[in-house]
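Morning, I've got a small favour to ask if you have a moment. I've dropped the whole record in just underneath, so have a look.
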Amino acid sequence: MREPMSYGAHGASSHEASRNEALAKFLEWFQQYQKELKKQTSRLQIVGREHCGKTWFARKLSEMSECVASHFCRPDEPQSSEPATVIRSIGEQLMRRFPNLVLPRLTTVTLLEDTVSALDHYLRLPLETMPSSSKPVFIVIDSVDDEETQILIQMLIDILPTWIRMVTTSREEYSIDKKSSEKGDILELDLMNDADFDRFIRSKLPHCHVEEVREASEGSWFYVDQLSRAVELGMVPSDLVPPPGVEKMMHLVARSLPGAFADIVRLAKTSRCRPTRQQLLAVSQMLISRDISILEKDIRLISALIGSSPVESELFDVPDIWFYLVGEENLRCHAAWAEHYKTKRRKSAQDICELAYHLSHSTTNPINAIKTLQSVGAGNLILRCHVIDLPTTALLKSAGAKLEENNYDVVYACSVGDVSYLDAILREVKPLPMEICFGLLTAAARGNIEMCRYLADHFPQLVTSSCCGEWNALRSAACYGQLEILHLLLDKGVDVDECGHSDRTALRAAAWSGQLAAVQLLLQTGAEVDRRDSEQRTALMAAAFMGHRDVVSVIIQYGADVNAVDKSGATALHLNLSNGSKQDEHSETTQLLLEHNADCKIEDGNGRVALHLAAYHGDPCLPFIFEKNQIVDIMDNMGQTPLMLAASQGQINAVQFLTVTAHADVDSIDNNGRTALQWAAINGHSKVVEYLCGVGSDEGHKDNDGAVALHYAVTHDDVELVKPLTNKHTVEAKDRYGQHPMMIAAANGNLKVLEYLMEVSDIINQPDHEGRTALSLASMASHTSIIETIAPKITDWSQRDSDGTPLIHTLILSNLIYVAEVFLTNGGCSSDADSHGRTCVHVVASTNDVAAAKMLKRIGGVNFEAVDRGGRTALMTAVWARHVAISVFLLDSCGVDPNRSDRQGATALSIAAQIGDRDLVNLLLKFGAEPKIKDSMGRTAMDVALISGNDSIVSLLQSANGSSGSSGIGSSVPNSPMDASKQRIRQIRATSSLRSQRIDHNFK
């Protein structure tokens, strides 16, 4: 089946969609300070009860472009919450995000023992000297639930610049200063997601009542997700009553897990770090007496059922709550892990430390533990700080490992500028050249002139060295405007254009950072003004992108090529306009470039000229750029004009200028046949849509997909956006797939918009080319509110697809039981049959879906004795498929007649006899099935069993009816419900022998 064009996100996963309201709340908090950066509101605390989805939400935030760093504290990995780990994690991400940020590589000991001072030199000083971001950004730290981490968060907030906000998640609100009521802003995840949580329940557990699950789960997203996985894997019945509370649910799931489950999870917990499945398998063999193939299957099953890592991941990772359920009993587990590391062929220093950790926490005799460590080379280790914990360190020392009492940190000494301290370190130890190199980098960035002079005198070979192939001391000093350091390094003979593998010189670094004095000094010293980096960008381009007007002016005075292009074909003007800033200095930089003959007609790699970029960002200098290039309808490689780009971004001022002053063609089309109006509608910019309609843009224009602007506007639940585009012509317009806007609104669940459109036209029942209607699209997307709203206008509730299958069948087969119930209670008919005459009761019988059958019984009016075109009942269908559960339900709860026969006279018992299912035969006999009933050819169930070679069934039926043999009539047997024509052919060709032929009947 051909898929329709996607107009919105209705295909997204329900879990992802369940946080839309929370994300909207977050964006509201974040955006309200875009212009006014208030320090006292720089923190947002996201709070919620355990397992309400805080970590998922934090990961969602970490994927946003405004997030510059994120860190996740894991309860099962204590080291992930240590200050040193958190600080280093945040720092490394900030360096990747901001290419001109130089952070010293401080040791773990320094970060742990002198956190306040280390933070000052590691983050505050470098960040303070960086140019401010043109817009606020944020850092996310998840699971801030202990006091030590909370204190660290407050320290980070105190040293971060105002343009970096802090977002944390925790189980409760927290304020460091107990005397102050200031906690930052609070976002309570639990309180605002009732509707989202209900949608999540319906998507994950469609068989259950939402109210029952909500009450039983106590608001836990973990509860719903975990239970649904157990149902999906068939570990617990789909029709169960949700157990009250997370713990009881976990006990229920645990009963379906392999017997070795508790030991396997304890082993995973004891490993300290998340093990791979192969590691866990190797260790499990030492603790659990089972065949390795069985253990492997057990681990795979446990991982699939309760694991938090993706199915394809090799890690064995489960939520920490399972660790609490299985309890401690870790002594044997530690011994197993110790044996694993002991038998490992090639042992790294980390392996020896892990071995020591497990030995120190097991029942191993201390003397034996020491001998084991000595045999694997623990005596050769030099420990610079305590390893893992004190018992581990003590055991390693007993085995001969040396613990350095003086924990020197060369880089930190250089960072603080303490020459005497560094001199003392150098007399005691011989540091690695890389440490000295990083120390010089840091000292240069801090402006520690005496430290730089000391290092340059004692290590002259490192003065021009690059760290990580990119940074050198000259570039570091230039980036932070340290003029004295620049003079010193240049006097020491450092080449002013010295650069690493990235080809970024000191001049480029100073230009990017806006260090005017440093730029002047470097140019006066002879720096090559148009030297290019690996991206073919010059210092002028770097300064122009950052909007440093004074720096741009100086570089131009030294003869820089204003119209040089980089690898992407962009000039300094292109890059300047790409920044999107609307600050005064940015506009002044743009005007300066224009005054010095920046060419507005040069096209970049996307075919865009300056006018395109200025329109896209709504640049204040748009009128000046238009004066330089008045071809207003110029197209880029995608055929898009400046007006289209401005409209797509909601830049109303730019749109007004381009249409009124520049006289842009409002109905110009791009390569996709779309106009500016359609691009504004696609991105939901109601003001631009209203304005363009007001100046005569054609709302009835169709693009290459046959869609009008209204098709795109209805993907947003914004009536104000839709109003200017709505008339009877556009509401009834169909795209290339035959879909009209009402169908798109229904598929996206946009109720307000759909209600508005229904006032204009009654086209709600018209289908697309595949036979789908607004009702079927809304139903398949689980938008029950749409079903209830449009129900009074529905004229055809069967909603058959191109194969003749009614919608109610499709909903049940798609496991959308809750939606099916809403569908039936609002007008859907349970007796609708497909091309084979099968109703929805046949569907639940063929899929063994007891939950759906219960729903059908609950709504009432359903005929469980309905027959298909072959005269077969749902019970017969269930028996053919060997489905015991649904057969029991039909017989016991629905009271169906077990002795009904199809058009060939076959009963359910005859079918069970043919397929040789003893359980079903017993079940049918128990509920009154008559063994003596004969089909149209005079055969009893025992005859059929005899023909099929099912001797055990023959014996069972003999004991049931007291007969000692068969009737001996005929050789054919009842046919599969899906294969009537083949059976008629077999009847013609049948022989008189009862055993001469075996007939294979497959339920198709």
